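subagent[fold] <- orchestrator: predict structure for attached chain, return tokens only, no commentary.
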Amino acid sequence: MMAKTNIDWVHMTDTAIVQQLGTYIKRLRLQQDTSQAQLADKAGLNRWTISKIENGEPVTLMSLIQILRALQSLHILNTFQVSEEISPLAYAKLKKQQRQRASGKSNPKPNKDDLGW
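subagent[fold] -> orchestrator:
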């Protein structure tokens, strides 16, 4: 039988999500052959905080970020990246404001003393 690959985050309790995060942190730490004390030292935290998250207990967001940084896993936060998007209506307004043609006025004569720098 194949293991479940997708986690149904929506139907999980907050406590279950924290436990899942702790399991993930522990797995990363063990894959890197790092002790809790070593990870705590790298993250600038105490070992108790590492133990706490790995046992499914909540920690601060700042501690989680420090742990992920120490595990070189900040890339998992890419999901939170916000990109600037323009609505179709705002885009249409911008396009309407763009110049459609030149005004027809001649350019002023260049200054003879201006070297163009």
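orchestrator: received. Logging for downstream: The mean pLDDT is 86. The domain at 11-76 is CATH 1.10.260.40 (434 Repressor (Amino-terminal Domain)).
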